[in-house]
Amino acid sequence: MKDNSNSIKHQIPYGRQSIDENDVFAACTVIRSEWLTTGPKITEFEQLLAEYVGVKYGVAVSNGTAALHCAMYAIDIQPGDEVIVSPITFIATANSIIYQGATPVFVDVSPETLLIDPDKIEEKITDKTKAIIAVDYAGHPCDYDRLKKISNKYNIALIADACHALGAEYKGKRVGSLADITVFSFHPVKHITTGEGGMLTTNSYKYVEKIKSFRNHGIDMDFRERSKKSLWNYEMIELGYNYRITDIQCALGISQLSKLDFFIKKRHEIAAVYNRFFKSVKDITPISVLNNCHHAYHLYVIKINSSSRINRHDLFNLLRKAGIGVNVHYKPVYWHLYYKKLGYLHGICPQAEKAYTSILSLPIFPGLTDSLIKYITETLKGILIEQ
Ligand SMILES: *Cc1c(COP(=O)(O)O)cnc(C)c1O
Description:
Structural class: alpha/beta
Distance between the termini: 28 Å
Shape: globular
Bound molecules: pyridoxal-5'-phosphate
CATH class of the largest domain: Alpha Beta
Number of domains: 2
């Protein structure tokens, strides 16, 4: 038991935050100020992030999952509707569809990138289909030209779950500006953090109004606007939630955002070392990166080749034993018990299911040092030689 707790303590995580004294100072300044929540830092963070991705509006909320729920609400997803989604994602993507009483329809991924396969979407579109949620898995943007064409043809919304892809680009355009609404998360493993936090970006003011009301109980204006106008009255017009983020978090977010490009650069440097290493490893192939994009490398995902002498299960355990906190992103969403109970069957997305048995995410985050990267590749080398 003692050994076990020790090894867990020393695990190199697959991802973690990078916080410096400027971040601490920014958050502390707000703690000492008048507004702890729903103050000026929220608007400032929203504007800065919207500007960064190249859209008119940002709306900050309490986390990425809440942002997804807000997006489903904003595009008016209702019971009986269907929404197309990738099965290789964090459960929250599909859950947000169910929050609105609608049905997730899983469309298989391309085996090379594990991004939703545009060739397989149209066959799943019915009269009930209201939207597609594209997931920029690992930080690789989806094929937005193809997705936009499909969403225009069928007049359905295109939502981007870009929780992996802040800072990524597709054909020279920043992720965040490529769909009707894009969703980001600021969980500590993501590119920038606010502890918990999320943001929606869009060019549509109609969506902004709906989302701002939805994050605040369905009330039609927030307290600050009321106090400016000296009105005591407020009206709840729809059923909303408390999905507000705090000013403390947004001050941290602003400070983090100023370092985003540096963070992405560090992630690229780590990915380049891994790429070089895996060129000479015949048992393992990193998942593909297309050259129409700038990757954000939230994850560095490898595939254990079917001809390999080692399987994913054993490699996972050996790396964990060596203190390397590898992870698996993701089990197909519909393989979770809750989804099984809803009636989703095995076999509906064969590529996703096949990939799931062979993928592994290696540690990648800005604070991963050269010596730790070396330790990871040397450990891998040692394990593979022994097979
Ligand atoms: C992190 C993540 C979310 C959820 O974000 P939270 O801020 O943790 O709620 C949703 N989708 C994907 C793909 C994510 O990686």
